[in-house]
Design goal:
The structure holds two protein chains of two kinds. Chain A is built from eight helices and 17 strands. By secondary structure, chain A is α/β, with parallel strands linked by helices. The chains are: A alpha/beta, B alpha/beta. Bound molecules: flavin-adenine dinucleotide and adenosine monophosphate. The site of adenosine monophosphate (AMP) has 21 residues of chain B, from helix 1, strand 4, helix 3, strand 6 and helix 4.
């Protein structure tokens, strides 16, 4: 049993993911509070050379082998189970991503350790972790503790500052060979998304539509506003899943991350997975008929109202002003 | 191909939530329950797979207020069979439901189990991977494409990452897949058809104990403090638009 903090490092193509730095930065302050150290867990082939970009950790555990050469849920869980069992850290931090969802639950089940998901806050008081989880689409925060005083935490993207974890250095590297196998899951290949007609990551002004737009034909209302302002239209996931706009226009966790000068969110509730992609926009204006929509927590200005009234009026006023 | 789908009811996010007086539970009176949208996608994908492989789709849901409506709706959409598992007063945590469903699946044939990728009401991790672990079979989350090879007993699936990058995997069956999006938008079941099925069809039942719990202690629930941090612009659509134009002008985003 230790007071250490373990962090699962997500990486692709030899590059450490942004979320790893967010977790490492938080892990440092938690380790300091608990009187333990930070261990970064990096699984793959030849991953030891990523250590220099993981200076925030006291130690890097490079777990190497065929079964973890590429991410598979089973390969990762089987390799990590004995490591977490032996190290018995106070907390194991995992990103709440496609990679982390399976790993967090797999470890929780294998080790009978509790799991707190969707974490946006973690504190340690008197040696006991307390976690704030974002639930109900961002409308309610739930603070939890672990019955056994330690456990696994799946952390939401953007919950902690990446800068706190982006520390150069040469942590101690220990290399292990991965135990277990990928038990029934074989990685085949990555499929890159098609590039779209418009690169929304390069636009200064984005008018973003959500499910509140109701049907494909109504997107024209947003197109007109975008045109009046010299911007482009993007969307939340349901609009893209419905086929009303191409995937390249999707903002969020599984879409693009945008940092425009202006982001107008129209009929978007502001689910955590959406906010992940637009939280760094310079100016956010939200239009939503639900006064309790979480988007208002992420916006600088908000309008509670019907987008079908407001969009045309705004387009007209901008036309007059321009 | 025996395809199983797990469905869950979740509080409708369109409602305003209130927390009870001791601050650890939602006030049930303000909740209205709807089918988790990702479960609707899981069912839709299952129905397509059924057409392709000539199998059956069995839908499992825990016995909970309103579950009959949900299950008859699944039948109306094309499920072959619906099963109510156990009886619950409160919506169970993920670890408990995974244990209960694993037990139920001991008696229900399953080559592939589809769940929704997640729900807005889970706290202790997603049920899919917990169920996969309980059953000792593979699990993959955030799945956007499934194609089944019945002869080889494998599925080729895509898992979605940030930026829309996909990972393609081959998974041996049986397996649990957490569905993010079906190949088509979930179909609609006419209310008349649901009503009709309520008269002619029955829901199977499997008894189950409440699980062990997920090992979390809820200390406090509250709306996030940041909500409302936006400066609200009041007025009718013309007033609001004029104010927005002024804000954009001040920010140098349009000519005033
Ligand atoms: C693994 C994973 C990845 C995901 N990735 C993404 C992602 O990349 N991007 C993304 O966006 N989501 C993503 N999601 C989905 C996310 O959880 C939400 O479901 C989604 O963001 C909701 O989209 P929305 O706000 O448009 O719809 P809803 O949540 O349905 O909100 C619609 C809003 O419109 C408002 N509205 C309705 N009518 C009107 C009107 N007439 N006028 C004004 N307002 C109106 C309503 O009040 C409501 O707030 C992901 C989910 C998962 C599980
Ligand atoms: N109480 C439940 N009953 C049946 N299925 C569930 C339940 N909870 C979760 N699931 C399934 O697991 C998926 C993920 O939900 P969750 O674990 O709540 O994030 C859901 O989309 C369902 O398919």
């Amino acid at each position: 049993m230790s007071n250490d903090i373990f962090v699962l490092i997500e990486h692709r193509d030899g590059k450490v993911s942004e979320n790893a730095y967010e977790l490492l930065g938080k892990a440092r302050s938690l380790a300091a509070a608990a009187g333990g150290s930070v261990t970064a867990l990096v699984l793959g082939q030849g991953v030891g050379n990523m250590a220099s970009s993981l200076g925030a950790a006291n130690k890097v555990l490079a777990v190497e082998g065929d079964s973890v050469a590429q991410f598979t849920p089973t390969g990762y869980v089987n390799a990590l189970t004995p490591i977490v069992e032996t190290g018995n850290p106070l907390l194991t931090l995992v990103p709440n991503t496609a990679v982390g969802i399976d790993v967090a639950a797999g470890l929780s089940a294998a080790l009978k350790l509790p799991l707190a998901s969707y974490a946006i806050g973690i504190e340690i008081a008197d040696g006991l972790p307390s976690i704030v989880c974002q639930t109900l689409g961002g409308k309610i925060n739930t603070e939890v503790g672990f019955t056994v005083g330690r456990g696994i935490v799946a952390v939401n993207g953007g919950a902690f500052a990446a800068d706190d974890g982006r520390i150069e250095g040469q942590p101690l590297v220990e290399t292990l060979s991965a135990s277990g196998d990928a038990a029934g899951v074989v990685f085949k290949r990555f499929i890159e998304p098609e590039s779209g007609d418009v690169d929304i990551t390069k636009e200064d002004i984005l008018i973003s539509v959500g499910r509140g737009i109701e049907e494909k034909d109504n997107i024209e209302l947003a197109e007109e506003l975008a045109e009046a302002m010299g911007g482009a239209v993007c969307a939340s996931r349901p609009v893209v899943d419905a086929g009303w706009l191409p995937k390249s226009r999707q903002v969020g966790k599984s879409g693009q991350t945008v940092k425009p000068k202006l982001y107008v969110a129209v009929g978007i509730s502001g689910a955590p997975e959406h906010l992940e992609g637009m939280r760094d926009a310079e100016l956010v204006i939200a239009i939503n008929s639900d006064a309790s929509a979480p988007i208002f927590g992420a916006a600088h200005y908000g309008v509670v109202g019907d987008l079908f009234d407001i969009l045309p009026a705004l387009t007209e006023k901008i036309g007059e002003a321009g | 191909m025996n395809i199983v789908v797990l469905v869950k009811q979740v509080p409708d996010l369109a409602e305003e939530f209130e927390v009870n007086s001791d601050g650890t539970e939602l006030d049930e009176d303000c909740l209205s329950w709807v089918l988790n949208e990702f479960d609707d996608h899981a069912l839709e994908e299952a129905l397509h797979l059924k057409e392709e492989t000539g199998g059956s789709v069995t839908v499992l849901a825990p016995g909970f207020e309103g579950v009959e409506d949900v299950l008859f709706t699944c039948l109306a959409k094309g499920a072959s069979k619906v099963v109510k598992v156990g009886d619950f007063d409160v919506s169970p945590d993920s670890h408990s439901i995974a244990a209960v469903m694993a037990k139920a699946l001991g008696e229900i044939a399953h080559d592939v189990v589809l769940t929704g990728v997640q729900s807005v009401a889970d706290l202790d991790g997603q049920v899919g991977p917990l169920l996969g672990a309980n059953l000792g079979i593979p699990h993959v989350s955030v799945v956007t494409h499934v194609s089944i090879n019945s002869a080889a007993k494998t599925a080729t699936i895509n898992q979605e990452y940030a930026g829309g990058v996909l990972g393609e995997f081959e998974v041996s069956l049986p397996a649990v897949l957490g569905i993010q999006a079906a190949r088509e938008l979930p179909r609609y079941a006419p209310v008349s058809r649901v009503r009709q099925l309520m008269k002619t069809e029955t829901i199977d039942e499997v008894a189950c104990d409440v699980g062990m719990g997920g090992g979390l202690v809820v200390k406090k629930m509250s709306p996030p403090e940041v909500v409302g941090h936006a400066e609200m612009i009041e007025g009718d659509e013309d007033e609001v638009s004029e104010k927005i134009v002024a804000i954009l002008g001040d920010a140098g985003l349009i000519n005033k």
